[in-house]
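Supplementary Methods. Inverse-folding protocol.

Structures were first reduced to a discrete structure-token string of length 416. This string, shown here, constituted the complete conditioning input.
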């Protein structure tokens, strides 16, 4: 027994807030499988949560298959509703829907003669139709003309001998673009109200100069983006637009000429198409987590001698998960192992009264606690004053330091 023990005090200091919230179950991705139909798989990502009072989180959408168009709703809080991985600024519980549109192979083709296999039929044009004449190669020299033929070179010596889009000697529509003729190709089809449709076509330059600039319109409203034909002749390039029919029951589809150059602006169209789209949608639910980190409950030796090591263990409720452990010790002590874990071993080098502390972090919160430690100096051997010799049967006084409670007697009788 050592002197300092008689005055040593045991104090456990806790700080921070008490753990009062209910355990939090992690999101269960199996409750939110992707949606799938018409060769599309749409996944809005696993349900997730954000620490209260809110913050930003990246949505993890994916679309597998031939989606033509997709977007998130609601768009509020998103930096971009038209990308698969937008950033959401979450201020409360919210459910986002990722909606994708794909071509349903079972939906019928609405455009008639879109591949021009039927010749100059089924469509209207502001342009003047010319017939390919044998042994003539200048039928389409004037701007504002078109032909339906398998080889543009048959009607203009400046036009390349392109194959149609699918090859095999099929027809295409060849156009010599004009400054003031807007509608190159138009056709009216029946549609269902409140449905999504995809209109598409292929374009190739037949002369490299001043490539065509085209855009779809439906019922006189331009839709989709403007396509610039590739200058290199005979390079077929697709372009498309997505259209919602709203209350319409018919759609007059047109391909618009937006390049008003008279020189060049020579191109071909093929495989014009309009099909109804199927929609596939999936949801992701984001909740707010109001989580409190527990106060670490530290246990270990309180009283040690300098030069001794002590192992200190922190324990916690099962939830929430503790994500980081950061122990700190005063100078004169060294963490010899376990930093970053719930248990550390500390070498106490110097005598002191101080504390070992632990900072923890959970997903949404942090907390800390300290544990008092008293490290004592190893005392010198107790001094006993008295005679250095004592004969058998004699009595003599020996004076011990007052705190010594016991001494080992070796052939001596202790009287008092
Ligand atoms: Ca064709
Ligand atoms: Ca000809
Ligand atoms: Ca031209």
């Amino acid at each position: 027994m050592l002197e300092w023990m008689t005055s040593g005090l045991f104090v456990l200091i806790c700080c921070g807030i008490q753990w009062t919230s209910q355990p939090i179950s992690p999101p269960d991705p199996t409750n939110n499988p992707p949606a799938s139909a018409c060769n599309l798989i749409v996944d809005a990502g696993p349900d997730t949560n954000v620490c209260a009072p809110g913050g930003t989180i990246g949505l993890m959408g994916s679309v597998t298959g031939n989606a033509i168009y997709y977007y998130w709703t609601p768009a509020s809080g998103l930096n971009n509703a038209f990308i698969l991985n937008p950033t959401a600024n979450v201020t409360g519980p919210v459910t986002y829907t990722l909606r994708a549109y794909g071509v349903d192979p079972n939906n019928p083709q609405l455009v008639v003669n879109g591949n021009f296999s039927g010749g100059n039929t089924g469509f209207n044009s502001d342009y003047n139709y010319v017939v390919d004449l044998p042994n003539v190669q200048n039928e389409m020299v004037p701007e504002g003309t078109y032909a339906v033929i398998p080889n543009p070179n048959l009607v203009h010596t400046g036009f390349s001998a392109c194959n149609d889009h699918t090859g095999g000697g099929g027809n295409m529509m060849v156009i010599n673009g004009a400054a003031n003729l807007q509608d190159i190709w138009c056709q009216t089809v029946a549609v269902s109200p409140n449905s999504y449709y995809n209109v598409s076509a292929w374009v190739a330059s037949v002369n490299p100069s001043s490539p065509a600039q085209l855009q779809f319109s439906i019922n006189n409203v331009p839709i989709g983006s403007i396509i610039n034909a590739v200058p290199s002749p005979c390079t077929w390039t697709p372009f498309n637009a997505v259209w919602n029919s709203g209350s319409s029951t018919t759609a007059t589809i047109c391909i618009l000429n937006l390049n008003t150059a008279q020189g060049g602006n020579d191109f071909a169209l093929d495989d014009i198409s309009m099909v109804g789209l199927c929609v596939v949608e999936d949801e992701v639910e984001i909740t707010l987590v109001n989580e409190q980190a527990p106060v670490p409950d530290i246990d270990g030796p309180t009283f040690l001698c300098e030069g001794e090591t002590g192992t200190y263990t922190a324990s916690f409720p099962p939830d929430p998960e503790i994500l980081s452990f950061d122990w700190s010790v005063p100078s004169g002590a060294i963490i010899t192992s376990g930093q970053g874990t719930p248990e550390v071993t500390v070498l106490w080098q110097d005598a002191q009264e101080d504390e070992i502390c632990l900072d923890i972090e959970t997903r949404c919160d942090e907390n800390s606690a300290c544990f008092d430690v008293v490290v004592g100096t190893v005392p010198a051997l107790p001094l006993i004053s008295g005679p250095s010799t004592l004969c058998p049967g004699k009595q003599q006084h020996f004076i011990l330091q007052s705190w010594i409670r016991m001494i080992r007697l070796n052939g001596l009788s202790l009287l008092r």
